[in-house]
Structure formats: C-alpha cells, structure tokens
Design goal:
binds glutathione; 209 residues; Glutaredoxin; alpha+beta
Length: 209
C-alpha cells in the first residue's frame, strides 16, 4: 500500500513536501484536493484541514516540515540534512513565521487595505531577502555550498513572493537570490513535482486502499 499524499498543486507547503518526497524516491498515491471542497477522508485523518497531509498506514503527518523530515528519514541521497540544525531552524522559523505573514499581506492587498505595498516590500527585504542575498553571495546555497532541505523548504515561498509583482521583484538588486531561484525553478525536481493531477474524486473509495 502506497503512502497517500493529499496535496494542492500551488500550495508552497505542499510543494516543499512533494519535493522532499520525490527526492527521497518515495512513491505516493497523489490525491489532488480543492481547498474549498476538502475530501472527507482527509478531514477525518487531519481535522485541521491543511495540506499537505501524508498518511503512511496508521501514521498521519499533517505538517509539511514533518513530511520533509519523514521523507529524508527514508532516503537522503545527497545529504540534504547535513547542515547545522540551529542555523537551519533559524531560517525556517523566519520563513514560516514573520516572512509568511508579510507574504500574505503583500499577496492579498484587498485584505489589508490599510497597509502600503511598498512598505511591506521594504520589510520583506530587511527581514528575509537581504539576509538571503548575503548568504547566497557567500555560498551557492543558504547553508553552504551544498543544497540542503532548508533551500527546498524556503524556495516555494520566495517563488510565490517573486510572482506577486514580477516587475517590481525584477527591479530589486538581488542577483544571488534571483540566480538561486532560477536554479530551483529550472530544476528537474521542481518540474517533476509540478505535474498536474485532476482533482481526486475517490471519496467513495475506502480511506486506505
Ligand atoms: N503549517 C502547515 C501549513 C499548511 C497550510 O497552511 N496550507 C494551506 C494551503 S497553502 C492550507 O491548506 N490552507 C487551508 C485552507 O486554505 O483551507 C504546514 O506546514 O503544512
């Protein structure tokens, strides 16, 4: 029985999970969902209703980072986890915490009419983009000259940020980030996890097949 992955193609959390699963060579039964119409079988195993969710027999992982780590426990052929844990943690906390808040404010100006887009952009630069640029000028990847799980965990969020206002992003003087972003966008790994699936309509099927 293959592990089941509930996923949503454009979700950055689901992207990082899919990238780690693919890299580790883990095959899954992919269940593409609609956020507005979540399958009952998913909500049954994970009532909080976020994707990604990975079900491996009785084990349910419903946090993207837990799925990444589970995948790397299965197989980590290029040593994505050979990095300083505390520096990795600092990057992830910043990304998933304050940067994600700013990203949502930037992406949904209609929800935040009191906020000025350019001010949000400046905050993002100070908080995230400038430290990343600094790190990526010193080394090819965020934690050194080898790719790590931290690059993969953060990349989908920087991609999303860059796509909110591509012309404005292009104007930013961030050559090292743009090179790093382009490398991930052009990677076979990213390509592989962005394949399109029809929405899973197997609600009548047993939860575990
Ligand atoms: N902390 C969770 C966050 C996952 C998350 O928020 N995913 C979004 C999609 S990008 C979601 O499922 N939101 C629920 C909804 O929109 O109903 C994780 O890392 O997996």
């Amino acid at each position: 029985m293959l592990p089941i992955l509930y996923s949503y193609r454009r979700c950055p959390y689901a992207m990082r999970a899919r990238m780690a699963l693919h890299y580790s060579g883990t095959q899954v039964e992919h269940r593409e969902i609609e956020l507005r119409n979540k399958p009952k079988s998913m909500l049954l195993v994970s009532p909080k209703g976020t994707v990604p969710v990975l079900c491996v027999e009785d084990l349910v992982l419903d946090e993207s980072l837990d799925i990444m780590h589970w995948a790397l426990d299965q197989c980590d052929p290029q040593g994505w986890r050979n990095v300083d844990k505390s520096i990795a943690q600092d990057w992830i906390e910043k990304n998933d915490g304050p940067f994600k808040v700013l990203l949502d404010q930037y992406k949904y100006p209609e929800r935040n009419p009191q906020l000025n887009q350019e001010e949000i952009l400046q905050k993002v630069c100070t908080l995230m983009l400038e430290p990343m640029e600094h790190a990526l000028k010193a080394n090819k990847y965020l934690l050194g000259n080898k790719i790590s799980w931290v690059d993969i965990a953060i990349f989908p969020f920087i991609r999303q940020f860059s796509m909110v206002n591509p012309m404005r992003f292009e104007e930013l003087k961030l050559p090292a980030i743009k090179k790093w972003l382009r490398q991930h966008l052009d990677s076979e790994l990213f390509d592989a996890v962005m394949q399109k699936y029809p929405v899973w309509r197997g609600e009548m099927a047993p939860i575990h097949r």
